[in-house]
Amino acid sequence: PADIRDAAQARVRSAPAPVTDVARLCVCDLLVAQCDISCCCDPDCSAEDFSLFTTCSVPVVTGDSQLCSQKAAVYSLDVEANPPERIFKIIDQVNPSIFCIHATNYKQALYLKSPEIPTPENFDQLLDKFGGATFSTEPDSWNVDTDAQNPPDANETSRYEYGVPVQTEDAFLRLPSPVVSSWCSDANPAGFLVNQATKCIRSVSVEKCDSIQALSMLFYINSSILAVPRSSQMVNITVQSIVVQSLNGMRTLLSSSDVLRLPIVLDELCINAVLGVNYHITHTDTGEIIEAAAAFVLGAISKEKLSIEQSFEISFTQENTQPVPLSGNPGYVVGLPVRAGFQSQGYPFPAAFLSNKHSQLTILHSTSTQDCLAAQGARAPVLFGYNMISGCKLRITAAMKCQPLAQTLLDVLKGQNFPEYVASFGNSQAQDVLDWVPITQLHISEQMLSHTLQSSCQIPVSLGIEVKWTKYGSLVNPQARIVNVTATITTTTLKQLPSGRERIIPITSSVVFTDISSPAEPSYKAWPTIDIKLPFDFFYPFV
């Protein structure tokens, strides 16, 4: 179409000077100081060599094919001339694709720049430039007219996206964190939907504690959050709760959080200093922030202390939903519960929020009495990476009926709602169908010796859960992923007891985690070893 052609021609007119000289490029020049046959761009070839060519092996030489417009060197042969001669010309080539690079104006990316080595003289300068959580590598000038392409009133986005810094009226919501060392840096932005928890060291002085901004509650709530990026709608940060911590570590929740408590110096103590902040952000399903709250931990600082440890945390919850605890991001963390769920009717995916308590895989929780009938309903979460075993004792009398007893023991072992699926990752969402692993249930029967006669029945006596997991992703930072879960119920034959007789049967429940990761294949061949003896002072003066 004419409008697309005009736009392409406009891009050609505004394109910067090419960085690569295509006239000097020659991909078929393989021989050094010799003419390559049929290589029309070889500078070692003379006019006599070109007269012997019948074709050009590389007729067109270009730079980056992803550019919207670039110079192209075109080579051909005039076979009608006597003798035949080479024809060379430079043309402007336009990329017809709408997905193309307008200009390679970031010249720093076109070559490898040696990093600046830190020295005692430039360390402070490098720390100021790169010490923050974010820093700019934008060149001093750009060749693209961004003001014309993006007018000031253009609404680039009307919602937050994952990882985008939460904006405030002055900059962004800060979540202090350690950067180069353990000291706090206030330049760490809080990313949307990115749950974070940090701890860092803050330098303090009791005499000046009332003037240190990072110790005051106002520093963390005085800037309103933008409901959506680049908007005028503000969301104020409210104080959800205030906990006061004494010098010995005892904490007390204040009944009222309406009054701000600012740090002051009293009897050589700095009281009401911020020791921890917990942000909680509520958002809609369209990426709009509608509520923000902060919970504070305030404490006292003695005159002897020169620094304190501060903790910061931020979490996000969608409105009208219940928060689901995660067990890793993405891979499981050792010691956190294994997340589980079941597929309820009406849901096309495993609905973890409809599962048992806290959406966790659980086993029988041992009690002090060791009575199986009294332990019914007591469950313990299965913690990733921890092999576990628990159990109880069942006292059987002649008056007990077989079928109700078997169902009761099954409920003791599996619980009321035994899940059907297990999350393969610690952060698997309910709607991600492929992130849920079905639990394979097996039944094994064994015989139990008894000297009694008459009828018999099968009762479950043990539940064994095997969780197979593997290391997923990069070898530098592998993530734990569950790939298979098997739950095996073992039953035994119980014959009817005569009147007045009793029998005690142990009931057990166990969990075993098995790592089935394949060992990493080395990318190099082992070097041959040499069996020699080095001189005793070979490494002198090093040990």
From TrEMBL:
> What positions does the domain Tectonic-1-3 occupy?
158-318, 328-515
Keyword list, A-Z: Cilium biogenesis/degradation, Glycoprotein, Signal
Q: Where are the annotated coiled coils located?
A: none
Please, which domain of life does this record's source organism belong to? Eukaryota
Q: Name one GO cellular component term.
A: MKS complex
Tectonic-1-3 N-terminal domain ranges (all copies): 7-122
Gene Ontology biological process terms from the UniProt entry: cilium assembly; protein localization to ciliary transition zone
One Pfam annotation reads TCTN_DUF1619
Q: How does it assemble?
A: Part of the tectonic-like complex (also named B9 complex).
Family statement drawn from the similarity comment of this UniProt entry: Belongs to the tectonic family.
Q: What is this protein called?
A: TECT1 protein
Q: Per the UniProt entry, what species is this protein from, by scientific name?
A: Hippolais icterina (icterine warbler)
Q: What is the lineage of its organism?
A: Eukaryota, Metazoa, Chordata, Craniata, Vertebrata
